[in-house]
Amino acid sequence: MVKNTIDSGNSNTQINGDNNTVNLSINPNKLTKSIIYKLLVIIDNSDISISGEFSLKAPAEMNRKLVFNKAPKYVHIFARYAYNLENFSQVLENCFENSQNILVKVANIFDEKAAKFDDNAEYVIDNGDIQLDIVKKNLIFCILNDPRYNENEYDDITIESFVYILMAYTVEKCKILLNPNDVRK
Fold it and tell me: Which of 35, 42, 64, 69 could bridge across to 177 with cysteines, CB 3.0–4.6 Å?
């Protein structure tokens, strides 16, 4: 019996098999630089606060950080969108003079809506998957409710892809979740 296979590349999907069984796996949309730019403009111009400070310690490797913060679901989610990181990074760093402000806004959403703190205002590791779900929900809400957002221009998958890659970049740069390198031993 011949098993069906799916080969993907260059945004094309080919299904091969014996017509008995089809296993379809669809990759998330590849985000173009123009889509990334337009959606970053929405986040950059949003009314999310940009106050805050960041640790100067070296960022931890993303998967290690996600596991440390009890966010194993996002190890897999971010891996599916990692191919967009290079385009995202180029657009953010080359097209936004104050690109750090965008990361601060995501960090502030995390701190204000999802993070847990102890009595000494120290970050407490909680369920990172739920915390990142909260950040995702708030970023999507911010985009969909912005007056510059055109619902006919982007589908739900594109918005979700953008939000996941923004979150992955922010985690990678250690702006959200606890950096394991910051933990006192």
Answer: 69
Gap between the Cα atoms of 132 and 110, Å rounded: 8
Residues 6+ positions from 4 with CB-CB distance below 8 Å: 15, 16, 17, 18, 21, 22, 23
10 Å Cβ neighbour count for 139? 26
Detail the DSSP E strand segments found in the chain. 5-9, 12-16, 116-117, 123-124
In contact, 106 and 166? CB cutoff 8 Å: yes
**151 within 8 A of 145, measured Cβ to Cβ:** no
Q: How far apart are CA 24 and CA 79, in angstroms?
A: 19
Question: Per-residue pLDDT for 83 more than 80?
Answer: yes
pLDDT at residue number 185: 55
Locate 27 and state its tokens.
């990759």
- The CA–CA distances, whole Å, from 163 to 39, 86, 120, 137 equal 9, 15, 31, 9
Dump pLDDT digits (tens) for 120-160. 998 899 999 999 999 999 999 999 999 989 989 999 999 99
* pLDDT band with cut points at 50, 70 and 90 for residue 88: very high
